[in-house]
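Hello,

Following up on my earlier ticket. Below are the four sequence lines again, exactly as submitted.
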Amino acid sequence: MSLTGAEVAKHNSAKDCWVIVHGRAYDVTEFLPEHPGGMKIILKYAGKDATEEFEPIHSPDTLDKYLEKSKHLGAVDMTTVVKEQVEESPEEKERLQRIQKMPLLEQCYNLLDFEAVARRVMKKGAWAYYSSAADDEITLRENHAAFHRIWFRPKVLVNVEHVDFSTTMLGTKVSIPFYVTATALGKLGNPEGEVLLTRAAAKHNVVQMIPTLASCSFDEIMDAASGDQVQWLQLYVNKDRAITQRIVQHAEKRGCKGLFITVDAPQLGRREKDMRSKFTDPGTDVQRQSGQQTDNSQGAARAISSFIDPALSWADIPWFQSITKMPIVLKGVQRVEDVLKAVEAGVQGVVLSNHGGRQLEFSRSSIEVLAETMPVLRELGLEDKIEIFIDGGIRRATDIVKALCLGAKGVGIGRPFLYAMSAYGLDGVDRAMQLLKDEMEMNMRLIGATRIDELNASMVDVRSLYNHGAVPSDNLASAVYDPLINPAQREVKAGVKAKL
Amino acid sequence: MSLTGAEVAKHNSAKDCWVIVHGRAYDVTEFLPEHPGGMKIILKYAGKDATEEFEPIHSPDTLDKYLEKSKHLGAVDMTTVVKEQVEESPEEKERLQRIQKMPLLEQCYNLLDFEAVARRVMKKGAWAYYSSAADDEITLRENHAAFHRIWFRPKVLVNVEHVDFSTTMLGTKVSIPFYVTATALGKLGNPEGEVLLTRAAAKHNVVQMIPTLASCSFDEIMDAASGDQVQWLQLYVNKDRAITQRIVQHAEKRGCKGLFITVDAPQLGRREKDMRSKFTDPGTDVQRQSGQQTDNSQGAARAISSFIDPALSWADIPWFQSITKMPIVLKGVQRVEDVLKAVEAGVQGVVLSNHGGRQLEFSRSSIEVLAETMPVLRELGLEDKIEIFIDGGIRRATDIVKALCLGAKGVGIGRPFLYAMSAYGLDGVDRAMQLLKDEMEMNMRLIGATRIDELNASMVDVRSLYNHGAVPSDNLASAVYDPLINPAQREVKAGVKAKL
Amino acid sequence: MSLTGAEVAKHNSAKDCWVIVHGRAYDVTEFLPEHPGGMKIILKYAGKDATEEFEPIHSPDTLDKYLEKSKHLGAVDMTTVVKEQVEESPEEKERLQRIQKMPLLEQCYNLLDFEAVARRVMKKGAWAYYSSAADDEITLRENHAAFHRIWFRPKVLVNVEHVDFSTTMLGTKVSIPFYVTATALGKLGNPEGEVLLTRAAAKHNVVQMIPTLASCSFDEIMDAASGDQVQWLQLYVNKDRAITQRIVQHAEKRGCKGLFITVDAPQLGRREKDMRSKFTDPGTDVQRQSGQQTDNSQGAARAISSFIDPALSWADIPWFQSITKMPIVLKGVQRVEDVLKAVEAGVQGVVLSNHGGRQLEFSRSSIEVLAETMPVLRELGLEDKIEIFIDGGIRRATDIVKALCLGAKGVGIGRPFLYAMSAYGLDGVDRAMQLLKDEMEMNMRLIGATRIDELNASMVDVRSLYNHGAVPSDNLASAVYDPLINPAQREVKAGVKAKL
Amino acid sequence: MSLTGAEVAKHNSAKDCWVIVHGRAYDVTEFLPEHPGGMKIILKYAGKDATEEFEPIHSPDTLDKYLEKSKHLGAVDMTTVVKEQVEESPEEKERLQRIQKMPLLEQCYNLLDFEAVARRVMKKGAWAYYSSAADDEITLRENHAAFHRIWFRPKVLVNVEHVDFSTTMLGTKVSIPFYVTATALGKLGNPEGEVLLTRAAAKHNVVQMIPTLASCSFDEIMDAASGDQVQWLQLYVNKDRAITQRIVQHAEKRGCKGLFITVDAPQLGRREKDMRSKFTDPGTDVQRQSGQQTDNSQGAARAISSFIDPALSWADIPWFQSITKMPIVLKGVQRVEDVLKAVEAGVQGVVLSNHGGRQLEFSRSSIEVLAETMPVLRELGLEDKIEIFIDGGIRRATDIVKALCLGAKGVGIGRPFLYAMSAYGLDGVDRAMQLLKDEMEMNMRLIGATRIDELNASMVDVRSLYNHGAVPSDNLASAVYDPLINPAQREVKAGVKAKL
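Thanks for your patience. The regenerated structure is below:
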């Protein structure tokens, strides 16, 4: 027999706290202090249905994994649960109106257009989670801006009737040199989550990297693959290595073809835009809190990442090599010295990346690190010992071409597909990928190359790449600067005459 | 006996489609799928008079060339054709008001002024076609911006009472070192089209380059020439070389004095501003199209260019040399290595050009490529083996002087004359050319040169030319960036007192 | 028996001027011409209570020190003093409303947020005094902007589970490598003044530098220290060295652990924003003053600084070394040559500083001077002979990390704590310091360092640091530039038809 | 007996044209076609009183010099002249209101403030004449911007109690190293004209350079000098050398101490802002003029300069040396090669200048040319053979200090004094000069120099000076650029529901 809403509703305090998720009740009283996202967020739903909040942040198997069976209280008769009447905020009403008026998919001509539309139609918190980055978001913007400091030196009068821009990554043949990189919490953008990306990747024959922090479970994403579609695993390494081993070996068994270990996130970054979007005013009647403590509810990312091991180091690499035969790629390398260490460690690849600007502010763009790396590798004769990928800021096929000219094997694209998915679902991602292919074909022709291996460093002019003179604008510092002004006009009494 | 409007109107579907052009009916049913601009645009006029749409995009002999005689149905009694009552859009009404208020021609003091006026008075689609360029239009703007990174080192106390800035190009004496470069679809700007440019060029004794994609026919433009006026032919090479041969040999017979082969356009670029201006909303009741296909109606340019051969290569040059005695110039060269190849191939000149920013985005400005090219030519002793022209972004006589100081033989100017023509017709083009001459005379004096051959590299400081630190702004990326903000003020209930 | 308000009120002219301060009357008639801030400001309060104006600008012992006892007229019965009814200006009303709505402290996520809030809620004159700087305030902004031209080269796969960013400065162990630098007139921001900074510094275990021009007296600030809290003395050297000697030796006796001699202020700078905020219109009926004289009321700074000795020179250093055993640090050094002189002079440290942009406009940022200095010191083997501090523009822990990578021992932070104090009092300063610690911990992890001594120059890319191409904008010059415009539309009479 | 207004009024056509100037009538019928400013402007006053228009543009002796005596018709009874009732335009009314509200002189804290006030209160045409420059006014703005790319390396701990910034120029002792450079048409800004500058220069003990194109006559300006005040003569060389000789020798006889020959103006530049301000709409009923001719009424400058000799060359220098003993200085030199020629020619000095940006657009700033020049002179041991002055863009004492550090003997300041004079008359100029002195004293102290000869190149960092990456913005090109936009929202019919 099912529980009723009324019964659950009685357990609505920190000392006795039940919540409903997907039609089943759970006693989370003892779990409260352990919740990585803080107890405040759970208490908001004490005695109530928490499904909507729970859904995009947790993969479906979370409760099974982290809450002991005795706390699983069984099914609830949902017809007896009082549906909370949330009044639509004016902000939300405006969003719904914007959705009414959103452009047709065919009006999106490039990847930035999807971002513009997503910003208008996404929920505020979801937009903030996807779009935010570290500190002043300088690196976030530098990532794209850096490409604008690279100019082309195209060849003309090359027969480019037939252009083929397929290539291979870690041994997998792909139709175009990008892959869908791992991004967390796909269901914030679309209720179906990451499996939409799986389907789009299949259609366009590109690799998808599965995120540790997906909204869908790992198996759901693997199951969504079709035929011999290739997927990779992005891994945040757990403090408990047994858990990590289980994850890695399960992925290999399920057929994952690459293990991308994130190395730039011993601690997840503070993202102030996300924090500000999550802030809720406790009200003016509440005694103002003293400043002694920094608020710990720093958005979704911090909450879900407390398990990540800050002690991960080069010394761990041999262990990974001992537990899997998948090629290992270090994701988040940011200096040529570490690329050389990676070669020495015998891994198959590195992703030059600054985590989309979400970790260390003022990390250089990956394209700049690439331009630093390849000449050193070539001088040491190591350029074929390791595959170099980059991600961050790629929005146009010209960006991809530049990366390949400079020696990258391929590029990862993350946010743009999330935005396309959030605005238009699977069709959006599909069109985004097709636009990249159209641009790619055109640009290969215009630069005078018929195959990927014809792209080389002589086709780009990078002399301005290192010139950070014009940094992306420092919005906060600019906003607080009170500019000098010239003397103002005076107010004078009527009738008073001045002479010039 | 003529056909009546009613008779034509019956054939108004994809399966049976007649259209009227210039008072004559044509059966285009079978031609529909072959139309380079897509069938949608023709079907809009099925059973109707399509003249107004047809006119600027096609040269007058198009129907004779591409539609077999049996489909030419003969004259239509135009008095029987129902004139469609197109309601004037508010946008169009505002444009007509702007035309009422347009400045007098004498108020235009420089070439940019014409662009400002043209933008106000041209039809939206025509403006979009002329003004648009590739991707984010970075190269478009870099073309002019690059000149702003070159500074003068003028000589003083030179007797500059008599200044002569005439020169020769491919053996032709001209009064000033610019030529009217080829630009497509002149009738979008003025019903008379390219012949207006012919007349202005004659008056000012400069060369006109005739575009393959003119609205007027080649012969109309040649016929408009006066006396021994010199014209050149710009050539898009057809996949069918027989057609190309016919065009080239006809031009030579008609007296063309130069063959400019476009080498930077194996495929015409995507111009998103143009695409957006052409987009028509199919209406909210239409089922939203899925994203599987990229919309192919990418504006006029793609439509009219499908014949261009992407296989054109260096191997074709000897053939061109075998079919004509005209000097051959390669238009669209973008790296010094290809200039050297051109010398080797024995052609008479190259135009350093990125096609007005309409092809490969992030192509460098032609003035930068020029600064790269000439020192290499001089070091190899080849500077007299070939004439170097540049085009793109030239708006002031100072731009021309800079190009000549750096070694160009002359510069091509395109859009500014189109804008002058679109706003003020022949008088506009005439004044635009005169303004350049006035500026040229003044600037020759002020830099301390009395003849073109006195301009040299010591008169310019190009140290900043390669400095792309400050790229033209990335409008789309800037527009979608959601800036960090400081904490907002709070809404408080009346009567609540806070203490500072 | 106390004086009455009426009695005092009689002495209300320049020839006979009494004022009330903190309930006691003073005869300042003879002192008027000697007042460093000019007599005008005193005369405004002739015969009245001047406490509110006096308070933040003068330390409590000022009257005892500078006005002979015979002029101390004794207590006033304050109930008999007519309280002046100052009408609240609309500007002040708006400020009070802004205070009502000010954000909660928890909504401040970084140091710039405090500045934004302070600007909204501070009194105009106080804000102007704190925020203003020299000339066009270019150096003010360059100070922070310079950090944005330094990029990180982080290490990955370093075990950063345990991060310790404590260090020592002049032998004192501190929890984080910043100190509270000296800033004048703390009571302008908060009635309690500098002692709030003392308490916050104690809590966070950082050093406070006590300013010569504090609103609180030196002893008040020393008394506010708790336990073995370390404080330093910032010294403006008096023309009368006996006074200076007294100050220094008193400080040493009270336990100060460092003497920071300001060397960049032989004369205090003109700060036009401050001057403009202080300007009061003498009214339209007053005869317009001729331009012969520059207005001397240049804000608080000039007024309180007339005692500073412009003759201070290197020759004075041995004397300082003879009168104190405190470590001596020269504050305001701006070129490597002077750092070498400081080593030679045997002082213990220098602060590379441009006085927060308040002195010589176009002084370089301290971080740039640091980058110039350390390689020279290292080459000469002097890097351990002297401690190098910097201040100016530090707003983020990334700024601190950059300074330490480049060789600084620590950084001084001034304005941000004043802003935090002005907006939120002690809690504000506390939170500001905590935010820096949180950022510091995160950034140490993300750059791959577990201790301060692991930070080194290979972790930063300073190639763009010297690139001043993009200077902070020149607001005044921009504001007065009247831009060229395109021809305007014409006004036409109704009915007149133009043809295009 | 005087003429009456009615009699004069009859002669009101091009064939019979009388005008009244300063109460006397003149027959200018025959002179009309010779008028350098065109006949149109005179015909506007045919038969009328032209004094107000005539006054600021012509020196008082113009009519005596250029109109033969027989055309001088004698006195007019001005009471009989109908005073034209000019209706005040709304624009002019607003200006008069702005004058009512203009700030007090004491509120101007720097030279840019005067420019801001002048812009508000000057007549449109006068403002346009003073403020305009060549083409896009890039050089105009670069002149000041270039100083912002130079940063200081100040010395500390220098005894700067006594600071002396007097120096000598061409043997004359001056109190501060600037002079009032020559600027034309002073009466446009103030009815008294250049003599106000003479008086201010006397008061502040600086040299005034008298312009050829002054509104006051040369002798009026000389007569206005007091005591042993030193003045120089700026010379535009006349095609008729006899006139030039007369001018030079008269100046020497009157006591001029320097001859500054302008060498950068063989033809005066086009200043479009000035032209646009002068444009008057001929009305909509007038047949639109064809574009064949460029409007010649290009503002005051062109009109008054037709006598200048474009044939002036190095060969003329010995002749000048033969006719005068005054030191000769070449004003407008712009490259080091020409400075060396000047040394060779044996002149006493050069002014590195681009004529305030009014001549060749994209001329480099004089401070940049100075930085190029001095190292070459020093290497050749010529630095003492010639005095180097610069002008253009100097607005702050820091600008002066930078110029002196780099080797200039002094700097010329022009427009700022015109603006001060136009806004506040003599008092304005006086205050402007005093502000510079106040700034100078402070900055000498802050940079650590007690005398001018202690300023040297080690005190400035010019590494960014040559970096023109960020040019002043190109207003016209920016204004006409139509930016790409993201897809717009759609208008939808009420009731239609879209799904996300």
